[in-house]
Amino acid sequence: VRLRNALQHAIDQQQFELHYQPQIQDTSGRILGFEALIRWHHPERGYILPAEFIGLAEDTGQIIPMSEWVLRTACRDNVRLNALGFEEYVMAVNVSPMQFQRANFVTGIVDTLKQTGLAAPLLELELTENILMESTTKAIEILQMLRRLGISIALDDFGTGFSSLSYLKYLPIDKIKIDRSFIREVISDHRDAAIVQGIISMANQLQLKVLAEGVETQAHYAYLSKKMCDIYQGYYFARPMPIDELITFLHENE
Ligand code: G
Ligand code: G
Ligand code: NA
Ligand code: MN
């Protein structure tokens, strides 16, 4: 109850922030876009990571207003970057299970795009396998609607869920994000290497883009580029950062 109240207080007091982590296109090193990651900027405790409050917010339903705020803020900030003269970037936003299951999920997104003026192709939604397994035919319909609008879909934390591979055949998605747990020791552990290689080959054959998460070192990057991974995200390139820092970062990278 205390944490629930604290969360409500945080919502009321606008203590949430989005931090943005760049996603890097191979070969050129070009920035393709960003993933928006929520942080709770607590007046006494400093930054609190989503692992500590997203689950609870799901349980209490507070995830719904929170997710609306996340989507609106991420879209608005992406429009702002473009207005500052940067090239067009794709903004990736995490979707929670409860948010996805709401009847008005697609309408809410369409409304937010309209209100913020963000073009649909500049929005990507990140969903986990577990969200999509809930009700596959329904999920496929929703994904199809989103993709017809021009929004792209990434499968997050790939390889950590409990789903079978057969659904990859049917899901209308654009991208697979290899979970960072497979990347960490990919160079030294032949089992991780085999799994990562397998995911990349499969993604290529299925004509899906493949992104490696948790790229922390030059060695990771060099290794994964040789394996024909398409996109990279991790501390080696940049940590998630507030919008003002991101703007500075983008100026320095021009
Ligand atoms: O930022 P960090 O690595 O601590 O994020 C941990 C997890 O929290 C990630 O798996 C991410 O999917 C989730 N997360 C981060 N931001 C959001 C958000 O805005 N909405 C939802 N639903 N999940 C988020
Ligand atoms: O669950 P999801 O993949 O959406 O969450 C991404 C999380 O991974 C973010 O919370 C971010 O803070 C974290 N992250 C991003 N890059 C790295 C990295 O290079 N190493 C580690 N350990 N974590 C990272
Ligand atoms: Na994510
Ligand atoms: Mn992930």
TrEMBL record:
Residues 1-254 form the EAL domain. It comes from the Bacteria. This is cyclic-guanylate-specific phosphodiesterase. It comes from Halomonas chromatireducens.
